[in-house]
Amino acid sequence: MLMIVLDATVVNVALPAIQNDLGFSQSSLAWVVNAYLIAFGGLLLLAGRIGDLTSRRGVFQLGLAVFTVASVLCGVAQSAAMLVAARFAQGVGGAMTSAVILGMIVTMFPEPRERAKAIGVYTFVASAGGSVGLLAGGVLTQAVNWHWIFLINVPIGIATAVGAQRLLPRDPAGAVVRGVDVPGAVLITSALMLGVYTIVAPAAQYGWGAGRTQAMAAVAVALLAGFVVRQATAASPLMPLRIFRSRNVVGANAVMALAVAGMFGMFFLGVLYLQRILGYDALDTGLAFLPTTVVMGTLSLRYSERLITRFGARAMLLPGLALIAAGLAWFARVPAEGTYVIDVLPSAVLLGTGVGVAFPALATLAMSGATPSDAGLASGLVNTTTQVGAAVGLAVLATVSATRTSNLAADGVSTVAALTGGYRFAFAVSAGLVLAAIIVAVTVIRPAAAPPTDETNPPAHRTEPVMAEVA
């Protein structure tokens, strides 16, 4: 998971060097990122469900092989077309592996305390990987060259494959069930790929009000509606709709989308503020976010399991979200002549604390309604929600920031002040999105009874739905 999350962010730092070497135009350069996002976001649900229907371990290992081979092709790419194609293949492999990871965790660790500890490790890696990627990208690009941001995946992928072969348990006999719902698979994959493409391409280039953007978005929504109808009527649905009977699962995924959309302001706009306003280089930028990673890791790896076991996931979610909102609100006041210690570090610490507390709780709630037979689906749903939230959040925040900057520049404000004003407004919107997440958490997610800590827990092979009762 760390390798996949790193790969999603490490590329951003190296884009200027990639453009110079391979001759990308300014408009085509975005496809180094977009090709990966479209494949990754479009295949998460399908990959998670195929893992349920066949073998999560097998899907994980196959995806790992695809990702590692694609990393080699990215690293040796000598043309723009080859790099974009290899990035698409990376997205396919990344979707296959990450879609089943949470599903494997909840089935491998049925005891609540051990599961909370494993989910804490997972959420730390998934959340902190972004800031680690900025640091790693800066180091590799400046010390060697951009090819190594991809080639570094190869030894990691090989080591992970060896570990997976030795440590991951095989799926129980009889895990393979009826075939995949092919029409449903086509509908959901098409809907998600078209939706992600609409966000990263026409919406970013022409705006949300453009006819092309609205037409593509309408087709994506229609495909998604067709998928829902198909799942309600299919004999062996790709995504059984029973998973949405749980208020906590639905609420946790909604909170995840809003919180991730808001948090993208920190990593995307925060990088721009540090580089364009404060004059940081790539390495300095990565180091600036290091406190976020340290605080996040300390909480996720050492304390989240104890806190969730003691107080419950919902009780930890609310203060964590409040800290994230506070960190973004602090960033919303950054001045053009800001300093790191006063204007950036407090936000970094608040966000690291909030994520370290809230995201393990969110992952626990999002998987709480999954039976062992649906664990891969629930895992893929969480990852899909995260990707869609990040993509929508990036599009919205970039748009409002650019619009605010343009308005200020038209009023005669200096370039630096106009840019800073745009970033500040976008950070305020980010804080508003997280406040909306808090409202959803309070009104939709229900507190659960403290989980038992003895040996009376249900066995891992239990097949009855474990879902919160619908009001």
TrEMBL record:
Q: Record keywords: Transport included?
A: yes
Protein's UniProt keywords contain Secreted: no
Question: Which compartments is it annotated to reside in?
Answer: Cell membrane
Q: Name all Major facilitator superfamily (MFS) profile domain ranges.
A: 1-449
Please indicate which superkingdom the organism of origin belongs to. Bacteria
Keywords in alphabetical order, please.
Cell membrane, Membrane, Transmembrane, Transmembrane helix, Transport
Q: Region labeled Disordered — which residues?
A: 450-471
Q: Which Pfam families match?
A: MFS_1
* Membrane disposition: Multi-pass membrane protein
The residues that cross the membrane are 29-47, 59-82, 88-109, 121-140, 146-168, 180-200, 206-229, 250-274, 286-303, 315-332, 344-365, 377-402, 422-445
> Entry's PANTHER family?
BLR6921 PROTEIN, MAJOR FACILITATOR SUPERFAMILY MULTIDRUG TRANSPORTER MFSC
Protein name per Swiss-Prot or TrEMBL: MFS transporter
Origin species: Phytohabitans aurantiacus
